[in-house]
Specification:
It is a single chain. The chain has 84 residues and is mostly helical. The chain has five helices and no strands. Helix 2 packs antiparallel against helix 4.
Length: 84
């Protein structure tokens, strides 16, 4: 979830709106299916769902449900410090 969160955060930070970020998520899912690693989508379904909901609420809500592990929080905070 951390990598996907950072990806979405960067897209929003660079000026993309919610619709553009949602399109990027759809394209990412399509790409993963085409290259044969659908398992990434299946294992990451909760993360994709949570992050898609955050994006749908508006780009200002990205990161409102941060990662729940200590390592995930450290990585997320580092990504925000570097690119936020």
């Amino acid at each position: 979830m951390v990598v996907l969160s950072a990806y979405i955060f960067c897209k929003c930070h660079r000026g993309h709106n919610s619709a553009q970020v949602m399109q990027k998520l759809r394209l990412l899912c399509s790409y993963l299916r085409v290259i044969g690693i659908r398992s990434v989508i299946e294992h990451g379904r909760p993360a994709f769902t949570i992050l898609a909901a955050e994006v749908a609420m508006g780009v200002g809500t990205i990161g409102s449900t941060p990662p729940r592990t200590a390592v995930g929080l450290i990585a997320w905070n580092e990504a925000r410090r570097r690119w936020g």
